[in-house]
Every structure is written in structure tokens, then in C-alpha cells.
Amino acid sequence: MAFVEKKLPADAPAIDKALNWIDSRFPLTKLWNDQWGQYYAPKNFNFWYIFGSLAMFVLVIQIVTGIILVMHYKPDAALAFASVEYIMREVPWGWLVRYMHSTGASAFFIIVYLHMARALMYGSYRKPRELVWLFGFAIFLCLMAEAFFGYLLPWGQMSYWGAQVIVNLFGAIPFIGPDLSLWIRGDYVVSDATLNRFFSFHVIAIPLVLLGLVAAHLIALHEVGSNNPDGIEIKDTLDADGHPVDGIPSNPYYTSHDLFGVTVFLVLFSAVIFFAPEMGGYFLEYNNFLPADSLKTPLHIAPTWYFTPFYSILRATTSDFLYVVQAGIAAYVALVYLKSNLSAITKAAIAAVGLLIIIGMMPAVLEAKFWGVVLFGASVMILAGLPWLDCSPVKSIRYRPDWHKTVLIVFAIAFVILGYLGVQPPSPVFNAVSQVCTVLYFAFFLLMPWWSAKGTFKPVPQRVTFKPH
Amino acid sequence: MKFLKNSISTIVATLVLLPVLTMANESEFPLDHAPDRSNNMAALQNGAKLFVNYCLNCHSAAAMRYSRLTDLGLTDDQIRNNLLLASDKVGNLMTINLSAKDAKEWFGVAPPDLSVIARAKSSSAGSGADWLYTYLRSYYKDDTRPTGWNNMVFPSVAMPHVLWELQGVRNAKFVEVEDAHGSGKKTTTFSKFETVVPGQLTEVEYDNNVADLVAYLSWMAEPAQNTRKRLGVWVLMWLSVLSFLAWRLNASYWKEVK
Known about the structure:
The structure holds two protein chains of two kinds. Chain A is mostly helical. Chain A is built from 18 helices and two strands. In chain A, strands 1-2 form a two-stranded antiparallel ribbon. The two termini of chain A are 50 Å apart. In chain B, strands 1-2 form a two-stranded antiparallel ribbon. Chain B has a two-stranded antiparallel ribbon with strand order 3-4. Chain B has a two-stranded antiparallel sheet with strand order 5-6. In chain B, helix 2 packs across helix 8 (203-221) and helix 6 (128-135) packs antiparallel against helix 8. The two termini of chain B are 39 Å apart. The interface between A and B is large, with 51 and 54 residues.
């Protein structure tokens, strides 16, 4: 097909001619309109819908501050700690860039957890948005890896020993474990070799993957359209122009809305950076102001706060707890057989896997340390299954039975308690509480096919709930 | 349903409150609160003087440049003539000539670098400044130790009481107390310090000087601290105005949405 460039009148403004030149060669205006300018989003977005754009904003902050930090940071075991202090003291505004990056990391996780909470409340992961959820899940995995690799870089005591503990977790995998740990570390213990490769992962490998996944996440979202607090599909009711009656173009309405959200976020973000960058030892851990010493193990090694809920589950898995897990699996298999509509083959497969796990959890077979790692991993991976675990006839919590709200709140409280316990040193009472909360955590997901479909659901409206303001 | 809701609430409430029971377990020496002298230039200068004279022989502060002391209101000449004891140029870092190998041989452990010690010693028991303030005032005579000194905050510490001439020599008095759980056993607890040889300073003067030294160490751990807070006030004011404007702009757009 011959190349056709639209002809503008001779007296058209230069900027229009320039844009025309680009649009004939690159779909700039089309991209803008499809992805944002004329992307029709539901008009009833509430507070919980700000966290997606905030997450993107913090990603940009982390990348820009990261680029500046890398100009002065030295990824060498002998120089790393001192180079961070050099940035804090001698690089003009270095202290500000450092604090923005460290606070940004914690802010990223707060935002992402709230972003996921929104999905849980309004059923944003359900058909046809399963891929949006799965890409988001992959982003969450990458984010955890990015934070883990980045945390080694300051080469403090907590950096070193945290990395040592977590990489050793891979050593718990039967047969391949020790070799796998050796391969990840690049050495027999966490050392300069580990620091160099974690630097590469943190600065290049994972950010590239993250950017790709964020693009995929947004493309998948824009393909099917955003969900909303009422959980109804706005594309079901179109106006004469073919636009959803309950939709509004993102520009200017969500441009200004998200801009407001960003300014509020910046107030909170700056309050932390300028007045409490350590945040009581949670954002910048006190022990990390001691240079890494391979000969001195800290009394309490705990991961940073955003990993603690899952870390608690790992710690909760003692050999005694395995009996509880075995009983739970047996009960679950029975439940699947008696009360599910799955095919006979699927039921048999679930029973077979359950039996293997129960055998594996017996005292003489695989030890609790291995199962702790398995449950640790499972507690994260189970999130990916949400679109298929949720069997509720309605998407949003607004039209579900009231007691569903209680279930969600109990889950949230269990998650927060697990997080709190993960920061504390272990104790018998704490261990028992974390075991109870682990059961609650997994029960929320594994029993969801049943509880999400139970109760009296409220009628879902045709149009969204919106009060003009 | 209501019963289920109530019982879940009770269980959850119990779970939330249980952790409080196990709070009181670690019997650490209680930390005193270090006075906040972060804006007191005279105190910080005195602290710098004490640091360079007493600490910088064994401890380095390798992230700290002598010339940064101008932040405390000193001139380069003042630094050069009074505080440049372990180095030759005012632009140098506060490194020392004691090698880690020698230090380990003489003390059993190399004295840690003090650049960020005030941040490293923070914990739930108190800030790093509190720890340092209590530590430097809790030394007592102990002939069982190689240095002849022990410390209530850091038991069996390898560091001697460097400031002993200022504080004097003290003994620590321990008493036997009945075990609180009534098991019939006795435990040894600290009761008080007892002066054996008085130092050059009175107790109040010594505490005052240690407070200055600790204020200096806190400043040295993060020299940008005061700038950070000062700027923060302006930043937050500006961002508040900005968010107010963004709020009203957003409201003006959304008026059009029916």
C-alpha cells in the first residue's frame, strides 16, 4: 500500500504539521487516545483506585533515584558500605536521593498491598481480567526479588545475614538444594561475588522485566477495560457514540484526579523522608548501620517489614505444626471429594498430591525446614489462583452477603498479625499465634470456592453508584 | 451468624492482645535518655573536641571529613590548630593508624568505626544516642577483666574506660534478690555505682560532657540531619499548597461529570 501522508492546509500551525508528520509514521496520537486520552474508565472510582497510578509513580521515582545512586555506589564488598556513606555526606543532595530510594522501596510495598486489597474487595481479578491479575502477580514476584537483591547492596549486617538466610532457604530443597544455593551465591557463603551479581539483577535484569510486565499489565487492562467498586461491566451499557454511559475519558478527569492523588502521596512521602527516614528502624534497619561481618551473627535476623507476613509462615512451620497441616490436607481432600463439582480425574489428582504431601510431612521423610520453605512459597503463589478460587456470582464486596466482609477483614487482620510477628524475635506464644494465623491465611484461599458462593447476595444494579460532585 | 461474628471478633481480639504478654522478658540495663543538643553548636564543638582527643586514637570515623566540622561553626584554621591530631590535612577523612590486625591482637577485637555508630546502636530500648550516653557512664572497676574495667550496658566489653580520669573510678554494687516468681532461688541484680576514686569532674559535669560527646556522635552519624529537617518544613508547606490546588482543580473538572 502506498504511503499516504494527510495534507494539512498551508496556514495550519507548525505544531499541527509536526504532529501530522509523526502520526503518519508512528501511531502517537492513536496510542495516547487508546491508552489514556480517550480511554473510557468508570466514573465511580473511589479512594482504592489511586494505588495503580501511585505504584507507577513510585516505580519512576525508584528508577530515577536508582540511576543517580549507581553513579556513586561501588558494588564491591570492601567499598560498598563506605560508598553509601559517601553518598550520604559528600554527594550534593546524596542524602535526599538515598532516603527517597529507601523510603520509596517501603512505599512501593505499602501501595502494592493496598492495590491488591482493592482487587480483593471489588473482584478486579475476575473474568475477563485474569491476565491483568496474573501480570500483576508476576510484578509482585519481581518486586520482591528486586527488593531482596537491592537490600544486599548497602552491605550492612542485616543485608549480609538476611541474604545468607534467604539464599540458604534454597538449600532446603532436596537433592539440588546445596548446589542451587552455591549457584545463586556464586560462592560458598554470601561474598563479593554475590554482591556483584545481585547488583546486576537489581539494577538491570529485574527492572527490565518489571518494565515489560508493567506494560503488559496495562495493555491487558486497557483491552478489557477497568473494573469499578460496583463490580459491573460498564461496557454493557453504551451510549449513542459507542462509549460506556458510566464511563468518562481518562483525560482530563483521571489526569487531574490522579494528579491530586500524587500530591497527597508526596506530602506523606516527604513527611517520612524529611522527618523520619528510618521510620523507627522499619524502613532503614538499625543493624544495617554496622558493616557486614561474616564472623558476627546478629541476635535477631529478620527480613524487612514487607516480607514478614510470609516469613512468619515459614517460621510457623515447625515439626509439630506439620501434624496440623497433614490433618488440614486430609480434611481438604475429603471436602473436595464430598462437596465439589470437579471431574473424577481432577479429584483423584488432588487426592494423589495430598497423599504425597502427607507422606512427605511424616517425621522420617522430609523435615519441617523443607516444608516451611514450601509453605512460604505457597503462601505467595496461592495469590495467582484467585481468579479461579473465587466462585461468587457477584464481583464486588458491595453486593455480597455482609459476613463476606467479616471474612475479608479476618484475613486482612491475620495478614497484619503475621507481619507483626515476623518482626519480633520468636517465642512460644508468638509461634502459636502465627500458626493460627497461617491456618486462617490458607483457609481464606483454599475454602474460597465454597464460602464465596454461600449466602444471600444482593441484587447488582445495571448502572454504577455515583453521586455527582 | 451473629454468634460466629462475635466469636471471630473475640478470637481476633485475643490474638491481637496476646503478644503484649511476652513483652517483658529481656532483662537489659535500662537506658538513660541522652539530652538533645543537636542544635547547640557549643555542645557539638565540645563533643568534637572530646571525640578527637579521646576516641580517635583507637576508633576511626572514616566517613567523616575534618573539614565538615565547619558545619559546627568552626573555621578551617580552628580545626587545623585544635582538632587535627591524627592527620595532617583538614580535608582528610578521620582515619587512624591503628591497623585492624594490631587492634585485634591487643584488644581481642578491632574497635569499630564510629562514623554511624549513633544510628547503629538504636533499638527498641532507646535511640543510639541513649545507648551511647548510658554506655559511657556505666563503666565500673572489675579486676577479672583484662583491662580492669567492665560495663553494665555492654558486659565484658573489650574497651577500657577511656574517660576514667574525668569520671573517676567506681565499683558496681550487686545485691542478691529473691526470684520474683517465688521459686526460692536468688538472682544477682545491679543496685548502684559507688565511687572509689573521684575524677577531675563532678558527676553533673561528667554527664554534661558525655552528653556533648554523644550529641557530636549523633551529629556525625548524619551531618545532613538539621538541613533535612529544616528543608522538610518548607517542602511540606509547598506540597500542602500544591495538593490544595490540585484538589480544587480536580473538583472543578469533576463538576462536569453527571
